[in-house]
Structure formats: structure tokens, C-alpha cells
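Re-run requested by the PI after the first attempt was lost when the workstation crashed. Everything re-entered from the original request form. Ligand of interest: nicotinamide-adenine-dinucleotide.
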Amino acid sequence: MRFEDKVAMVTGAGHGIGNAVGVRLASEGARVLVCDLDGDLAAANAKAIQETGGTAEACVMDVAQRDDVQRAVDQAVSSWSRLDILVCSAGVMERAPFLETTDKHWLRVTGINLHGTFLCGQIAARQMVTQGEGGRIVNVASNSGIFGGRGRAAYGASKAGVINLTQSMAIELAEHDILVNAVGPGPTLTRPEVQGALMASAQNRMPLKRYGLPEEIASVAAFLASDECSFTTGHVFAADGGFTIAGVMEG
Ligand SMILES: NC(=O)c1ccc[n+]([C@@H]2O[C@H](COP(=O)([O-])OP(=O)(O)OC[C@H]3O[C@@H](n4cnc5c(N)ncnc54)[C@H](O)[C@@H]3O)[C@@H](O)[C@H]2O)c1
């Protein structure tokens, strides 16, 4: 019960990694605001948490809209009087060849993944600073933010931005005892339909030779969100089956 007495806001918590993070934090005692653009998914996960004895509320919001993010933080504070933890998992992985990347595609992907992470971090951190008792912020980056990838100009740039934003936030928020880290998932099975050549190519590059499960990313995020993480800030923790450390794998 590492999160007893803690209030957490998790974005993208209706599906995939964010869903698993919400479930994990609630299972260890956190009161969780389940934020998602998709109201049905947010409501379903909040209900699932409640049915297992946890405490959760749904919040329909768009991380790319400042007013929505402020409303989410206000909901957490109005329901539970405080906010201790923010996990930013909302994101879109949409690919486009670089030469055909439109302004619309670029602005949508960076708008949700990077601008959304900035908005949530800034507004949540202001609340934590007001409370004066520190906090934890966990951003969800990606292997794609560390090296380039085909079709990932906007996505990779957005995640590289999340990594650098994490470092700058960690420096400026340290004086408030707000620790800011990121988890860097490798290929993770959040969509059962992911298979075929892309899956085989990714697995071949991973020493563990398999996709991760959302719960495996959530366990790293939970550590970074906990008081156990007390001397680590501004770091990206790969949870990627060895994807980022692998060089030559055969022979
Ligand atoms: N799945 C992977 O292999 C993988 C790998 C590396 C990084 N990531 C990152 O992990 C995070 C979660 O990925 P996932 O695979 O769980 O995705 P997912 O598509 O399964 O879930 C994302 C959730 O975010 C919500 N969302 C989308 N746009 C939103 C917005 N503007 N405001 C609020 N909510 C919004 C969606 O409705 C959805 O419920 C993303 O940031 C993604 O880039 C995923």
C-alpha cells in the first residue's frame, strides 16, 4: 500500500499503459483520477477500479487543452483535497513518411504527446507547489524519443521533447521536492491487433524477444511515482526488454 493517502491523476488511463498504471496505483491505495479523451473508456476503468475495492473517478478531458487539464486538476482537488502524483500516459502513435508529413499530422502528434505533457505537468506542479508537500510526476516517453525511426518524425520528435522536458522540469521542481522522471516503454502489447512484420522486426531487436505487457510498464511507473523513488529525478527508465541497450545480437 505505497500510495495510501495519495491522490493520483493518470492521463490516457482509459486504455493501454495508462489503464494499467491507474489500476496499479489504486491497488496500492491511491485515489485515482482516471483521465481520458474517451469518456466510455475512462468510466469503464474507474468502474473496474471501484469494483475491486479501489477509489477512482473518471474525468473526460483532452490533455492538449489547458482548460481541460485545469478542470481535471480541480476535480482531483475538489474530490480528495489534494494532488500528489501525475502520470502522463495519454499519447498517440501515428506514423507518416517524413516527406509526406503534413502540418496537421505534426501538430496533432506533438500537440497531444508533447504540449499535452507540458500542460499537465505545469498545472499539476502548480497545485503540488501550493500544497507544499512535494510530489511525483511520471511522463511516458518512448524508445522512439531516443533514436529515429521510419515514419516517426513527429512521434519521435514529440517523445524526444518529453525526455528533455522531463529533465528541465526535474531541475526546476527539485526545490519543491517534486521529483520528475519518465518511463521509456519499448514495444508494448496494448493493441492485440499488433502483429506481423513490424512485430517480428521489433522483437528481433530485443534481447528479451517479446513485447512488454502494460502491467510491466505500470510497475516501473509505480516505483517512479512512489516515495521509494526519493533520490532519482530527471531520469528516463527504459522498460523495453533491452531494446535500447542492444547492439549486434546474432553470431
Ligand atoms: N504501446 C507501445 O508500444 C508504446 C511504446 C512506447 C511508448 N508508448 C507510449 O505510451 C503511452 C500510452 O500508449 P498506449 O499504447 O497505452 O496507447 P493506447 O492507445 O492504448 O492508450 C492511449 C489512451 O490515451 C487516450 N488519449 C489519446 N489522446 C488523448 C488526449 N488528447 N487527451 C486525453 N487522452 C487521450 C486514448 O483515448 C487512449 O485511451 C503513449 O504516450 C505512447 O506514446 C507506447
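Saved to the shared folder this time. Residues 7-244 form a domain with the Rossmann fold fold (CATH 3.40.50.720).
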